[in-house]
Design a protein that fits this description.
Elements lengths: L7 E2 L12 E3 L28 E4 L2 E4 L2 E2 L26 H7 L3 E9 L19 H17 L4 E12 L4 E4 L1 H4 L4 E5 L5 E10 L4 E6 L21 E6 L7 E12 L9 E4 L11 E3 L5 E10 L8 E5 H14 L5 E2 L2 E5 L2 H7 L7 E6 L4 H5 L6 E5 L2 E2 L5 H7 L6 E8 L2 E8 L1 E2 H6 L23 E3 L2 E5 L2 H7 L8 E6 L4 H4 L7 E5 L2 E2 L3 H13 L4 E8 L2 E8 L2
Parallel strand pairs: 2-3
Antiparallel strand pairs: 1-19, 3-16, 4-5, 4-7, 6-7, 6-9, 7-8, 8-11, 9-10, 10-11, 12-13, 12-15, 13-14, 14-17, 15-16, 16-17, 18-25, 19-20, 20-21, 21-22, 21-23, 23-24, 26-27, 27-28, 28-29, 29-30, 29-31, 31-32
Amino acid sequence: MAQNWAAAPVHGTGRTSGRETTLIRIPKFEPAARGAVAGARPRKAGVRPLVAAIVWGMTSVIGGGAVIGGFAGAAPAQAQAATPNRNAPGSFADLAEKLLPAVVNISTSQSAPQRPQGPRPEIPQFPPGSPFEDFFRDFFDRQQQQDQPQRKATSLGSGFVIDAKNGYVVTNNHVVQDADEITVILQDDTNIKAELVGKDSKTDLALLKIKTSHPLVAVPFGDSDAMRVGDWVLAIGNPFGLGGSVTAGIISARQRNIDAGPYDDFLQTDASINRGNSGGPMFNLNGEVIGINTAIFSPSGGSVGIGFAIPSNLAKQVVAQLKEYGKTRRGWLGVRIQAVTPEIAESLGLPGHKGALVASVTPDGPAAKAGIQAGDVVTKFDGKEIDEMRRLPRVVAETSIDRAVPVEVWRKGKAQTMQVKVGELEAAEEQGLLTANPDEKQQPKDKAPAQKPTESLGMKLTGITPELRQQFEIKPDLKGVVVTEVAGNSTAAEKGLRAGDVILEVGQEEVRKPEDVTAKVQKAKEQSKKSVLLLVDRKGDLRFVAIPLS
C-alpha cells in the first residue's frame, strides 16, 4: 500500500495517519435532518473494512429546543464485573455528591447565516374572484415571513470550575468555537454569562471566566501519568442536554492517537460518554480531574464504551498559558519529521526503529542554527527518550521558550549531541515560517540535451532538463535525478514514489545523474543491505523513503 506522503512538523502543525476512522465534529442539526451525520472530513482509503466515527460529544439544538434525533438506538449497557474487586468502592455516591457542584453545563449560541433575499416576484394577475389569487398571495406572504428572522444555533456541552475565587471554567474548544454568546449553567440551574479567556484548537481546550456572587465549587487537577490501565474513573457531564449525569468505568488504554490533533495522547475509558459530555471532567477516586472528556469512537453517534479524554498533565500546561497570556506559547524546533520504519532504521544502521527522522529543516530556525540536518534521527530531547515520532512534538511544545536544551541525534552511524535554543511556535506561525518555501530563484537556462532514461529499483530515471522542470514543476535551484516512470508492480510504487519525484540523495549521499543512483544501489547490495534510503523531493515536500532491495 502506498505510504502517506506528508511529513509531520515537529511542533505538530501537521500529522500523519494510516487509520480508516472518520473524524466528525457534531453538526448543527435541524429537526428535519434527523438521522443524518454530517461534517465528516475526507479521509484516505485504507485496508480496514470497518469505518467508524470519532464523534466530538456536543449536543446541538436549534432555537432552544433540544434535538436528540439521529442516534441509532441506545448503546448496550456495559457489563458489570461478576466478581467484586476489593479495591472497588461499594458506591460512588459520596464522591459524586462532592463533585457534582463543580461540574457545569455550557450553552452557546451562534447566529446562523441569513438566507440571501432576492427581489420578490410579482403575484400573477388573475381575473377578479379567481381562487388562485388568494392562494398565491398567502404563499408569497409566508415566504417573506420565513426569510426575515435570523435563526440562532444553540449547542450544549460541559465544563468544570478550577478556580472558585476567580471563576475560571475549563471546557473543550469545539464546545465554544464560533459562539456569539456563552452561558455557564450551574448545578442549581443558575445561568451566568461567560467570557472567553482563551482557546487552543491543537489540544481542543478552552478557558472561560464567570463573575458571580453565587458560591462556586472548584476541583483540582490530578496526575494523569499516575493512572494505570484498569484504574476506576468517574465521568460527569451533560449528555444530550439532560443535565449533570455521572458514569463510572475504568481506564481502558493510555497514549491513544486518534488523529485529532498534533499532540494526541488520549486516555481511553469505557465510562459512558455521549454527545454533550464534551468538556466534562474525568475523575480519579480521589476526586481529582485526570482527564477532560473530548471524543467517542462510535459507528452510530452513541456510546459504545470507547471514549477519549485529554490527560490532565497536558491540559494543566495549556490552561496555565491561556490564563496568563490568553493564548498558548509552545516550544518550536523548526524541523519536519517522519516515522522511523524498520527499513529506514536498517538503512541508517540505527539500533531499533525508534526516534523521529528529520525530513527537512526550516532555514534560520532553532534546529538549523544548532546544526541539525535532514537525515538526522532525533533520539533524545532534553534528556527525554523519543521512542516514536509523535512523542517529539509534545516534548518540544512543553519546553520553555528560549531555553537551551541538549538534543541527541543519530547521524551516519553514530550518536551526536548538540545544544538547541528552543523557539516559539506561535511566533513562527505568525511569521509564516512553518509553510514558507525558500525563495525561488530565476529559472536557469539549462542547455542539457534530452537524456535516455536509466532503469533502477523499478523506476525510469533521468537528469533534470528545462522541459522536465516545467512539466513536473521542479524548483529552479533543485538538483537531483527525476523519476519519469514507476513500474506498477514495483516496491517503489508500493512506497508511494511516482513520476515527477526528484531523488536528491541515495544512502545519505547526493546524486546528480541516474548513474549515481544505480552505482549507490549496487553498492548497497554488495554491502548486503536489505534496503536503500532515498531522500525525495515532491514539489518542495521532502521525505525519506526506504526501498527494499530484495
